[in-house]
Design goal:
By secondary structure, the chain is an alpha/beta fold. It is built from 21 helices and 8 strands.
Amino acid sequence: MDSEDALRGSTAKVVELLGCQIVEGGKPRDQHLTVDAVMHEFGITRPMAREALQTLHQKGLINLQPRIGATVQALERWDLLDPDVIAWRLEVAPDSQMRSLTELREVIEPRAARLAALSRSAEVCHDLTSQARTLLALSEEPDFAQPREGAAIRQRFRDVDAAFHRTLLAGSRNELFLRLSHPVVMALNHRIDRDWAGGHQDVTVTSARAAVGADTVQSYPTRPEPIAMWLHMGLAYAVDQGLATASEAFAEAILAEIRGGRLQDPAVLDHLRAGLDEFNANGLPTAHRDGFRDAMAALVRARRAPVVVMGVTGCGKTTVGQYLAESLRVPFEEGDRFHSRRNRESMERGDRLDDRSRSPWLAAIAGRMRAAGSEEGLVITCSSLRRIYREMLRVARADAFFVHLELGQDEATARVAGRQSHYMPASLVPSQFEDLEPLQDDEVGMTIDATLPVERIVAEVQTELARHTRGR
């Protein structure tokens, strides 16, 4: 084939192909690679095969020893900051590599921001503030979200964003931070080059049903989120004002924004509030002051909607609810504890609850939701099978957000039958599905597959909650 012929004779291509094979496990750890085998596989000369293996040895993917040859190394021996290794890992396992790169950024960028503010280099301040203004302007270009017409705009945006973060690391005056600018830029570029939501034509999200499949690090939106642009603006001008705490807080918030619900983390918001207390918004260009103030006010003063984890018995409401509450750092309530003793005894006998029996239970749950402070937040479980039940809860808190854990009847029956020490028998599962009225398009919430790993479910919920909060 022509494509295969084009690869032959190119040492760089052989290095890339071998590197990808090692990264994806096609050539597993401890496998021996010989010069002859590489020559035969890629149709290249002996000197070229030797050069390719030597290059991979320098990157730590293989170990070359006299009379033994090349041996594939374990991941911990790889040069994980080598640009080629990063690129190969992004190609083969983008989710895990982006998670690792983002965690690296979370460690170094807030600290670099603090140091940059303390150094307060005139050149760095000039570049950061100019780049932040340019990013905001580019993000508001009408054609940004257009696949073809916006390509040049997105390319320009990508380049300026990379320059912004390189400038920040350089401003720290820490040579090791600056050395890490390349993996930081690769993470930035990957999101907009390879994970831009506008390039995924099959992805749709409605108000009631969230798209499933986004990882903890979100896909790059069709258009940059306004809050992300204002956070960049705040970071640039906090460095310009020499405010170490504010600079660190803005950098932390920028990274939290790409991590789904983490921007709503109380610790992140508390740190941001402390930074805003010392930040002088009048130091911004006049044209941007009102927009910045409005965006920050909406972010730090946003009400925390109570989350109701709903669904039939056995769908995992308690497990997901506890995990979600912990991740959001809000109180958790198990809805079943609000049932009267009479209700529990009825269900233990296999008797189906009617609306009259459920009414006091729903009223008690509504009371707990009403008592939750707007900044305290709450995650509470409640089957909420019928729409009328959900409307009763919305009377208590109109901002309630429902998470429907969707599960098939056979799976629900199997789960309930396998549970120990629970009053709900498997015989009542069919009645739950008879009562179930799924979330409608005009209801605030999301539906997600209850068979997904709990960590994935929670990440999806955090992402949709953050999207919902920004849209309110």
